[in-house]
């Protein structure tokens, strides 16, 4: 099985990692030579997907093509090239069109009567302002009072292309759903923790949600998949506010971070099953077992010490390597080189329980700090990591 993954940034890292776990041969294609995913592939082709002759040559011979980019022009070009080459493309353009617009997906939530944050001005301050296009925390801003809103949007027309909704506090959770209409699988719920910039800095599994809310979340995800007639994969994110799950966003593409946490916790490889959707017969397997607990997080080592932060700390990394036993972690994805004072790593720590996984995570971070000669805090408390250990 040979997969062509187009895009070597953070989505590409996720795709290459899971393809490697599935035993597939990976051809990575990107227009930049030093992307993070380059160290995780079997072969690398330097090509711009919008350059049809070069890109088609790189794609030829693949059994499956997976987009790991969000550029609309590049995605459109890739759809055309996959069709010309008669190679299955693991992508649903129609579902992605809805999910890539927060305005369109918010309308979908309203049409389905799903619980979601109230839209401004039907809610009090503070409100959260999010650009309609783009994913993750890019461009997100908290606006706390009327004057700040007027300063950020001095003219009402400037609000076009933005979603303004009530700012809700509470823990966030994610779930993936994949399959075809009438034949979907809701995967494992993962717990999300964000840094001060609302960028996801850590993923944990199994979830702390009680079984009834896990079931509710799964049914919500299945309902959304049917509503957009999904063929492929979609990620759904919610927040638990005052005891109720409320939908924040959907993303009809392979997300980063959560699929790897799911694989370590349950053994379910989302990418392998996505291949079944487009290449073979996809069969839902039902509720997934929890085999172990996992903490998945990011660090950035600098001459000043160790930064614990959101996924953005990995964006500047050079080609990553898969390193087993990295400072005591089960695995790490890192551009670490001995003696180099500046490097990034995604750390994966597991245990029989969340308490054990947390304890290992703290030991790993402490070991890295010692290696850097950084002043170590008395303890790496759970609050330092953006959430409460369970």
Spell out the key features of this protein.
390 residues, alpha+beta, Rossmann fold, Dna Ligase, domain 1, D-amino Acid Aminotransferase, Chain A, domain 1, 4 domains, four-stranded parallel beta sheet, 31% helix, globular
- Can you tell me the CATH class of the largest domain? Alpha Beta
Distance between the termini: 40 Å
- Measured as a percent range, the helix fraction is 25-40%
Could you report the average pLDDT, rounded to the nearest whole number? 92
How many individual domains? Answer: 4
In the predicted model, the low-confidence regions spanning at least 5 consecutive residues are 375-390
Oligomer: single chain
Which fold name is given in CATH as the topology of the largest domain?
A: D-amino Acid Aminotransferase, Chain A, domain 1
Description of the structure:
The strands form three sheets. Strands 8, 9, 10, 11, 12, 13, 14, 15, 16, 17 and 18 form an eleven-stranded antiparallel beta sheet that branches. This protein folds into four domains: 2-91, NAD(P)-binding Rossmann-like Domain (Rossmann fold, 3-Layer(aba) Sandwich); 118-166, Dna Ligase, domain 1 (2-Layer Sandwich), CATH 3.30.1490; 169-279, D-amino Acid Aminotransferase, Chain A, domain 1 (2-Layer Sandwich); 293-385, no CATH class. It has 390 residues and is of the alpha+beta class. The chain has eleven helices and 18 strands. Strand 8 and strand 9 form a beta hairpin.
């Amino acid at each position: 099985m040979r997969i062509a993954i187009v895009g070597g940034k953070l989505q590409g890292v996720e795709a290459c990692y899971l393809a490697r776990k599935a035993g597939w041969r990976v051809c990575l294609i990107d227009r930049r030579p030093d992307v993070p995913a380059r160290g995780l592939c079997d072969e690398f082709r330097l090509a711009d997907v919008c350059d049809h002759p070069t890109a088609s040559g790189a794609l030829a011979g693949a059994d499956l093509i997976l987009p790991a980019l969000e550029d609309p022009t590049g995605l459109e070009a890739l759809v055309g090239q996959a069709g010309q080459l008669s190679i299955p493309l693991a992508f649903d353009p129609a579902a992605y069109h809805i999910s890539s617009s927060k305005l369109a997906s918010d309308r979908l939530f309203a049409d389905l009567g799903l619980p979601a944050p109230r839209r401004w001005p039907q809610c009090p301050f503070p409100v959260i302002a999010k650009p309609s296009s783009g994913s993750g925390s890019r461009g997100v801003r908290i606006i706390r009072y009327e004057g700040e809103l007027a300063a950020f949007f001095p003219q009402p027309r400037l609000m076009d292309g933005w979603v303004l909704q009530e700012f809700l506090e509470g823990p966030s959770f994610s779930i993936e759903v994949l399959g075809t209409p009438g034949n979907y699988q809701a995967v494992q719920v993962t717990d999300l923790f964000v840094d001060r910039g609302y960028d996801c800095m850590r993923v944990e599994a199994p979830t702390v949600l009680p079984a009834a809310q896990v079931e509710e979340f799964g049914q919500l995800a299945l309902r959304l998949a049917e509503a957009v007639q999904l063929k492929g994969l979609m990620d759904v994110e919610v927040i638990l506010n005052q005891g109720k799950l409320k939908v924040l966003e959907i993303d009809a593409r392979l997300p980063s971070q959560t699929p790897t946490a799911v694989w370590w916790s349950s053994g379910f490889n989302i990418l392998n099953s996505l291949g079944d959707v487009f290449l073979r017969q996809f069969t839902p397997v039902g509720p997934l077992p929890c085999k172990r607990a996992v903490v998945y997080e990011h660090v950035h080592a600098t001459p000043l010490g160790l930064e614990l932060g959101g996924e953005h700390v990995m964006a500047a990394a050079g080609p990553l390597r898969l390193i087993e036993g990295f400072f005591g972690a089960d695995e790490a994805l890192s551009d670490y080189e001995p003696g180099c004072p500046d490097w990034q790593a995604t750390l994966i720590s597991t245990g029989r329980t969340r308490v054990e996984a947390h304890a290992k995570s703290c030991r790993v971070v402490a070991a890295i700090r010692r290696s850097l000669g950084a002043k170590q805090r008395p303890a790496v408390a759970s609050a330092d990591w953006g959430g409460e250990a369970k």
